[in-house]
Amino acid sequence: xxxxxxxxxxGPLRAILGVDLTTxxxxxxxxxxxxxxxxxxxxxxEPGLVARxxxxxxxxxxxxxxxxxxxxxLRGLTSIEVALx
Length: 85
Ligand SMILES: [Zn+2]
What we know:
This protein is mainly β. Strands 1-4-5-6-7 form a 5-stranded antiparallel sheet, covered by helices on one side. A 3-stranded antiparallel sheet has the order 3-2-8, with no helix packed on it. The longest helix is centred in the N-terminal third of the chain and has 8 residues. It has one domain. The radius of gyration is 12 Å and the shape is globular. The protein is 9% helix and 38% strand. The chain contains 1 helix and 8 strands, in the order E-H-E-E-E-E-E-E-E. Zinc ion (ZN) binds next to loops.
């Protein structure tokens, strides 16, 4: 299965949260690796987007969207560090 990088998450995360999290630093719940969300390995888009850790392939986050709803699962991330303007 092929994947793209985490930059693919920019639009969906902005639509859900109102901010671009691709430059945010995420910490993997599986191995503790820390890096930009943009470095995640992203699979999808059907049935949803799945972002995996580039170090251990743990699922970091999932996004499923319909025409009028979105579901965001962040359970694979211990934390997300966002730089404030
Ligand atoms: Zn990991």
